[in-house]
Amino acid sequence: MAVRIKKKNMVSFDEVNKVWNIEAIVMCDSADDLPDADQFDGYHLALGSLAIDASTGDRYYMNSSGEWNKDESGSGGGGGGGGGGGDTPTETPTVKFIDYDGTVLHEYTKDEFNALTEMPSNPSHEGLVAQGWNWGIENVKTKISNDESVTIGQMYTTSDGKTRIYIELTDGRLEPILQLCIDGTATIDWGDGSAQDTLSGSSLTASVSKKHIYSDVGEYIISIDVVGNAAIFGVTQASKLLNKTTSSQAYTNNVYCNTIKHINIGSNISVLSNFAFQNCSLLTSITIPDTVTSIDGNAFQNCYSLANITIPNTLTSIGSGTFSGCYSLTSVTIPDTVTSIGGIAFQNCYSLANITIPDSVTSIGNSVFQNCYSLISLTIPDTVTSIDTSVFSSCCSLTSVTIPDTVTSIGTYAFYNCYSLANITIPDTVTSIGSSAFSGCYSLTNVTIPDTVTSIDGNAFSGCYSLSSITIPDTVTSIGGSAFKNCYALANITIPNTVTSIDSSAFQNCYSLANITIPNTVTSITNSTFSGCYSLANITIPNTLTSIGSGAFSGCRSLTGITIPNTVTSIGSSAFSSCHGLGCIKFKSSTPPTVENSNALSNLQTDCKIYVPSGSLSAYKSATNYPNPNTYTYVEY
User: Fold this and answer.
1) Are the beta carbons of 293 and 314 closer than 8 angstroms?
2) pLDDT digits (tens, 9 = 90+) for 468-524
């Protein structure tokens, strides 16, 4: 088929036409094959769908009228374009100062900020006390000296030290239970004029609770005055701050989690424990004071409406999954005190376009930015030594990422499906590139692998449709399975003579690959290694080869001739099937290699000649699974 769906996301169901509207990424053999929006493969292509011309790398986007518009920005493969690494001109760095609600309070160019001798003045809000910016001036100047932009946030506590929870109650939702972990006492003002309640406890890990019955629907402000210390906590699937029940029935408790709209944390709450605000899906903003010393894993997970947050500079780590699923999060300021960012911390933050990672960070966990569809650019600080599994997986808009020369490994799926990444520089400190590390980077046009790398793992560059050039150093000893599969634009590649193994499907469907020489260090061509390489006209097989795997050259339509050395003893099924242009096959061994089945040499043109060594004509003609001598001509040489 000329058109293939590579990825689809259900958007809505059209009740009238009974069809799903989908945002899709489709591959076409040419621009002439661009599909109609209506009823494509049983779907309707929605606004934002992407089509890629596999022959040129050109990209087309679906507009609101159901028509394809060609991307003229140069980000597609054909244009070479602008994305990542050190090949792209650096934009002028800026320093932005953000308020708790995302308002940009101050913005400076690099030169303007360097002229400052102190940070700008703190903002003011009724009921809040500004505590200062979460970066120090010298650390900001160090960051921008490397031509990196910085976003800085303001920390706040409440003017009376109390924690305020802004809620909106509706019919049937008038009896919330407030739960805290307290080492001391907490006085609760429910905001409806009723008598205050008091909670007391002696531990930050054991909860106490109080139920309140409101008389009417409406908006209220719950005020909590803590004497001692307190923690806000949750359980898997829900915050426990406001609940329907004190049990762990998480989904039931979500009805009160969803009444919380805004929070100002006061001075005596020091810990936001695991799941503290999880599934508070209507929480739009929060202020966190510098008295908070710990924000644990999943604390804000699935806060779908949370758009901005400033992390206080009393924190040294961001826990696993802390902000995962915050779909609306556009701005987060990480202080220059943080040293580690836990796994999936920002996973599925679809709206997060830019983020500054301070130089204090030494560890970035697995899948931290996975599915951050809006993330455009990011600089990894030179304090980081590895890019772990799936860190940037499916960051569809990522055009620029700077990898420092302190990084020694790029993990599996690290940049998987980063569709917009056109170029990237891999520093010569990197010694390993994990499986599927760059798989599905449709816009990636060229890559140089440093000579510190010894192996290219499976699927490392599979589906890089626009990749036309890659340099493999002579330190590489193995090329993993499907490493370059579906690299449609890859026309030439040199395999160094240090390579001893090439795994199955390594170059499958490299439609543009015209010539290749297999070094004499390789002893076998495994299954489907060059299957579907339509343009492959010439290939040199070394006399060290002992076997040719199943489907190794199937569908190589342009291959006109091939010589099989006398070291080859076996040929797998479909090894040369459908090589329609094959005019001759020359065997060097006097003993016919074992052919697995009749498909191995099937669908050849009848004028294809079989050349065999002198004295072996009879052996080849009678060999099992060889072309029928009544149809094909065997010639001794």
Assistant:
1) yes
2) 989 899 999 999 999 999 999 999 888 999 999 999 999 999 999 998 999 999 999
- Classified as helix, coil or strand, 230 is strand
Single pTM value for the model: 0.82
> How far is it, in rounded angstroms, from Cα 253 to Cα 237?
9
List, for residues 174-215, the tens digit of each pLDDT value.
999 999 999 999 999 999 999 999 999 999 999 999 999 999
CB-based contacts of 406, cutoff 8 Å, min separation 6 = 382, 383, 384, 385, 429
Token representation of residue 612? 């065999």
Which residues partner with 637 through β-bridges? none
What is the spatial distance between Cα 181 and Cα 7, in angstroms, rounded to a whole number? Answer: 45
Half-sphere exposure of 411 (CA within 13 A, CB side): 15
How large is the C-alpha radius of gyration of the chain?
31
Phi and psi of 406, rounded to 5°? -95, -15
Please identify every stretch of the chain with a pLDDT value under 70, giving residue numbers as ranges: 1-25, 39-42, 47-48, 54-57, 63-64, 71-91, 246-253
Which of 120, 116, 110, 115 has its CA nearest to residue 144?
A: 110
β-partners of residue 571 are: 548, 595
Distance CA 147, CA 35 (A): 43
Residue 10's pLDDT is 46
- Cβ count within 10 A of residue 606: 9
Let me know how long the chain is: 637
In angstroms, the CA 217 to CA 298 distance is 30
Provide the 8-state DSSP code for 137: H
* C-alpha span between 259 and 544 (Å, rounded): 72
